[in-house]
Amino acid sequence: MARHYTPDEGLLANVLNVAARTGNPDMVTRVLDILPVLSLQPEEYHLVALMEAYVKAGKVPQALQVLSMVRSVGLKPTRATAHPILDVLTTPELVDQAFFALEDMKAQGQTIDITAFNVLMEASSRLEDVQRVRATQMAASDLGVVPDIDTFNSALAVCIPAKHRALGDTIMEEMKQAGISPNGQTHHNMILVCLTQAKYDDAFFYLETSKSEGFKPQAEAYRQLAIKCSSASDGRAKMVIDEMESLGYKMEFPREHQRGSEAGDRGGRKAFGERREINGRGGFGVRREGGAGGGDRSGGGPRREGGPRRDGLPRREGSQRTDGGQPREGGPRREGGPRTEGRPRTGGQRSEAGGQRRRTDGASGPAEPTART
After folding, report:
1. 48 and 56 Cβ atoms separated by less than 8 Å
2. How much is the pLDDT for 278?
3. C-alpha span between 175 and 173 (Å, rounded)
4. Distance between CA atoms of 293 and 161, rounded to whole angstroms?
């Protein structure tokens, strides 16, 4: 007589770990089917294992769908939840394929979780692609998602390497209009954006604002402030370091900036003033140079007229799809409005005939979103 063995929860957890690391989503699915037998409800780590297995198997579209599954069982996916997906979206082509996957989910009537959308925002930001970040942000309504604080923080993050202060101010104003309050990461990003400019007093404004709102500024913010002040012989460098150490942060000041810090401390207090009160607390006494859109714009370029550009989104190929679906033969546009012109091209030039893009690199279509192991 055959005997049936029912595994315990510990054994199932081990199986999940192995299946996730080896890219075996079918095995993870079998484990999930056993959970009701043990009177267990799916937890986040169960579904994250499924997502990681899809990523390892090179099936990023399916992995994005898992984020919606996590929320459907009453759990709240976070940025950390989606980290396995983020880790593999390292090229524009892979980010494009992930965006296409979200478009397909929307076309099929599936709900797109904001966490999945934010993965694309952060991946684009890591690529330091300003146009792609902004275009993806503007596509939120088309995909049926409502931007949250993480969406805006990713948009701000790309302004740092771009040294685009004007765009940072624009994004802050958009947050205000959306009724979203800044958090500590928001202020941190704006501090670093301001430090990319020749006039950087607003960096201290955001530092003091962060503290007054109950956030503890990050060590990197203090480090970059100290380096900037030292380079400018600004006496506030020593004050920044003192405050940094009072918060428990340790930093060995870069040797090339030590002399500038000492010189700036001797003459800087007269030029920049002693510490003054701001919002009832000790601070660096800096008034913001302007409202939204204020401050120095050097290096950031002029503000775009008529709002942000909507270019940067990937254009679909008319060639064979890579996700296993039917080939797109340059068919009709998706319902819901015209395609936004100027979306980034991931290979080749667009042909004037028929409005389809012609690849000049000999490839037949976009790259397959294969996960790195």
Report:
1. no
2. 37
3. 5
4. 18
Alpha carbon distance 48, 87 (integer Å): 14
CB 126 within 8 A of CB 160: no
* pTM as predicted: 0.70
Are 112 and 68 in contact by the 8 Å Cβ rule? The answer is yes
Do the Cβ atoms of 169 and 155 come closer than 8 Å? no
Report angle CA 329, 333, 336 to the nearest 5 degrees. 155
pLDDT at 197: 97
What's the average pLDDT block by block, 10 residues per block, for the chain (373 residues)? 68 89 91 84 86 93 92 87 94 95 95 96 97 97 97 98 97 97 98 97 97 96 95 94 92 55 43 36 55 41 41 51 44 43 41 34 42 41
Report the relative pairing of strands 357-358 and 276-278 from DSSP bridges. Answer: unpaired
- Chain-centre distance of CA 172, in angstroms? 15
Measured CA angle at 340 (ends 338, 345), to 5 deg: 130
Q: Report CA torsion sign: 140, 85, 165, 273.
A: positive
CA distances from 148 to 67, 79, 121, 219 (A): 16, 12, 11, 25
Which residue shows structure tokens 């980290």?
83
In order, the DSSP letters of 136-165 are: HHHTHHHHT----HHHHHHHHHTHHHHT-H
Residue 358, phi then psi, degrees to nearest 5: -105, 120
Count of beta carbons in the 10 Å neighbourhood of residue 272:
19
C-beta separation of 140 from 161 below 8 A: no
- pLDDT number for residue 83: 92
* Contact of 99 with 77, CB cutoff 8 Å: no
Contacts of 327 (CB under 8 A, 6+ apart): 319, 320, 321
Best CA proximity match to 89, nearest among 66, 112, 122, 115: 122
Regarding beta strands 281-283 and 357-358, do their DSSP bridges make them parallel or antiparallel, or are they unpaired?
A: unpaired
| CB-side neighbour CA atoms (13 Å) of 187 | 22
> What secondary structure letter does DSSP report for 197?
S
- d(CA 285, CA 288) in angstroms, rounded, equals 10
